Amino acid sequence: MNPQFGNGAASISDDFGPRGAEAVLLVHGHPFNRSIWAPQATALAAAGYRVIAPDLRGYGENPAVGERTLLADFADDLAALLRHLGIERAVVGGVSMGGQIALELRLRHPGLVRALVLCDTSPVPETEDGKEFRRKLAERLLAEGMRPYTEEVIDKMLAPYNVTGQPEAAARVTAMMCATDPRGAAAALRGRAERPDYRPVLAALPEEVPCLVLVGEDDVYTPVAEAEAMCALAPHARLAVIEGAGHLPGVEQPEAFNRALLEFLAVLP
User: Fold this and answer.
1) What keywords sit in the KW lines (predicted)?
2) What is the value of pTM for the model shown?
């Protein structure tokens, strides 16, 4: 199912599993699209969950809108999508930038978030150096396209041993990245440079909003130590370290990732 509504909203999305079941909203990172969640959508739908996997604005089949997209814009898009689908509350999961968007959704629309699944992400605000890097990268993507950047970072998105050892996964991630519209990626980079501090959001999570933190054992962008720090902030968080994976454990080790996710969902209050 691909519900469509509104210019700029998360209007292109896959909707798997039985209606009326526990809803799980999965938010992709940069520079990917909703297909990154295919292994998770299949497993969760088979287990009886309803899975919503949208393309964020400017990614996948969703067109770019404007020169800057704040994480707040993405979060409001997702809130509109959930309400459009008649979903009052959902488990919200995101990888990398998608995890930051999940935290922004909890900040701006707390009643929509039943639980959080934060994968290979960081709650800290952008540094001044980081702001400059993201703005320059935005200009580079517009000038060069996505392929040079993709080839430069593929062995950071996936653990280097998986780039060679899992050629199908590497090809899938590479294709996703290269297919991204540079205008959408640049707009997101400019917006992400302005991201706030989400650590207070984690620290304020009540017991009735559980949190699962997942991280690839060999993630160089958001290492295990950062995931541990997130769990220390969130009083009721659980940590799952996925062995044999880098920044995208849901792609690199889908069975282990899905097992940790399903175990978390099974014990939600």
Assistant:
1) Hydrolase
2) 0.95
